Amino acid sequence: MAALVDELLVILHGLWLRRWLALGVAWGVCLAGWLGVALIPNSYESKARVYVNTQSLLEDKVGITQVQAQQDLDRVRQTLASTANLERVVKETDLNRTVDGPRDLAAKITGLRETITVMAQLDPSMIDISATWADSGLSDGANARISQQIVQKLVDIFQETNLSSDKVETRQSLAFLDQQLAARGKQLAAAEQRRVEFEQRYAGMLPGAGSIGQRMDAARSEINSIDSQLVQAQSALAAMNGQLAGTPQTLPGVGASGGPSALTQAQADLASMRARGFTSSHPDVIAAQRQVDLLRGQGGGSAGSTPNPAYLSIRSMQAERAATVQGLSARKAQLQADLNAMASRQTDEPGLAAEQERLDRDYQVLKTQYDKMLADREEIRLRGDVKSETGSVQFRVINPPSLPTAPAAPNRPLLLLGVLILGLGAGIGTAFAVAQLKGGFPNAARLEKALGVSVIGSISQTVSAAQQAMERQRMKWFAGASGGLAALCLLLIVIEFVQRGLA
């Protein structure tokens, strides 16, 4: 520990002997540093806060979700510092006065991009916009005013982008879709005309609608359906035929009006007379007997029968079933003939079916595209109307761009104090380096260690009264110079605060 203390004392003694060198270096470094700090231009920062509400009552109804609206807002916020927007800022503020050619404009845009900050708060609807500007060729007031103009122009661009970009984008999208729809409409009309011409040219060869393959499949399907219907109709007809065979055509003893026949009535009258006791010689009995004989002689047995209504009904149903069977058979024969004709056409002219399928396929593809584009156009138009007419974006400036009165940078008081510390460190370091480089032995112990021999003794320095007086005077000078360095630093700090207060 004693050796360490001795070494420290030796170092301090060496620094004290070279105190004037340390003080000179400190003054030089501090003056140079303070001059550099004074030459740093003041940077003035202006801030603004805006509120953007993207909620709407109708947006969800037309497919515009809150997530999509927030994504649109983030996209606008991220593109606010684009080259086109920054070029507008330069040209529409006082920065345009210092622009001399495209190179200066590019330099100003690059500087703006580095000093502009657009940041969203915890609430995504709250957005802070800030800009810092420092130009050594301009006064502090001009720099402060330009920073405010930059932020104000960014707020204006942000508002214009949010309120008008949707209208511009919708108008451009609708114009593009109109052009595409017109082109697709012409192509669709041309494809439809080719289909019509093809069908007219081969109308007799290609019965039905659709391609040959589709028609053949439809014909086979309908034939299968007709076969099942024909089986059912034939079964019903067979049942009607059996029922008709077991039903008599006429009903005996029944008049045409549905009552008893004339012969039956005459026989009944004769029986009634005999039941009352009339004899065979009674004139009424004789007359009734003659009537019965006359009707029998006229064939009253057969005349007394009438057509059977059940037989007629079954016969009508049988005729209907037979007509159904005949119609189904005729339809099957026709379909089979068409199927055979189309199969023969496919065999004889295979390119005809391929050409028809190609025309139908091209037409369907174009029609599908046209219908989809038409639906997209209507959806875009509706969404654009909702955004523009219902006021889906509410924009409000919470804090307008401020005119800064104090520079945001640099922190000159701290820099001035740092330069003082740096100067003192440079002076002490220089003195220490010189003490290490210069040969000599500060005490007898160091000499013994260097030479390896014992030192008999050492002679202390003898200072006269005049030398002591001169040394005291030099101490005053040193103290004054050291205090002057600190006082100058304090004076510069006070001047900086005074300037900020007056600003």
Description:
The protein is α+β, with helices and mostly antiparallel strands and 503 residues long. The strands form 2 sheets. It has a 4-stranded antiparallel beta sheet with strand order 2-3-1-6. Strands 4-5 form a two-stranded antiparallel ribbon. β2 and β3 form a beta hairpin. α2 packs antiparallel against α13 and α13 runs antiparallel to α15. The chain is rod-shaped, with a radius of gyration of 60 Å. The two termini are 56 Å apart.
Question: In a few lines, what is going on in this structure?
Answer:
This protein has helices at 2-17, 19-39, 66-78, 83-91, 102-115, 140-201, 212-245, 262-275, 283-297, 300-303, 309-348, 350-389, 412-437, 444-451, 465-502, and strands spanning 44-53, 116-120, 126-133, 250-251, 306-307, 394-399.
Which short descriptors sum up this protein?
503 residues, four-stranded antiparallel sheet, two-stranded antiparallel sheet, 15 helices
Secondary structure tally, helices: 15
Oligomer type? single chain
Taking all Cα atoms into account, the compactness measure Rg is 60 Å
| Distance between the first and last residues' Cα | 56 Å
Low-confidence stretches: 55-67, 204-208, 300-304
Mean pLDDT: 75
Topology order in helix (H) and strand (E) letters: HHEHHHEEHHEHHHEHHEHHH
Give helix % range.
over 70%
Topology readout:
Elements lengths: L1 H16 L1 H21 L4 E10 L12 H13 L4 H9 L10 H14 E5 L5 E8 L6 H62 L10 H34 L4 E2 L10 H14 L7 H15 L2 H4 L2 E2 L1 H40 L1 H40 L4 E6 L12 H26 L6 H8 L13 H38 L1
Antiparallel strand pairs: 1-3, 1-6, 2-3, 4-5
Helix pairs in contact: 2-13, 2-15, 4-5, 4-6, 6-12, 7-11, 8-9, 11-12, 13-15
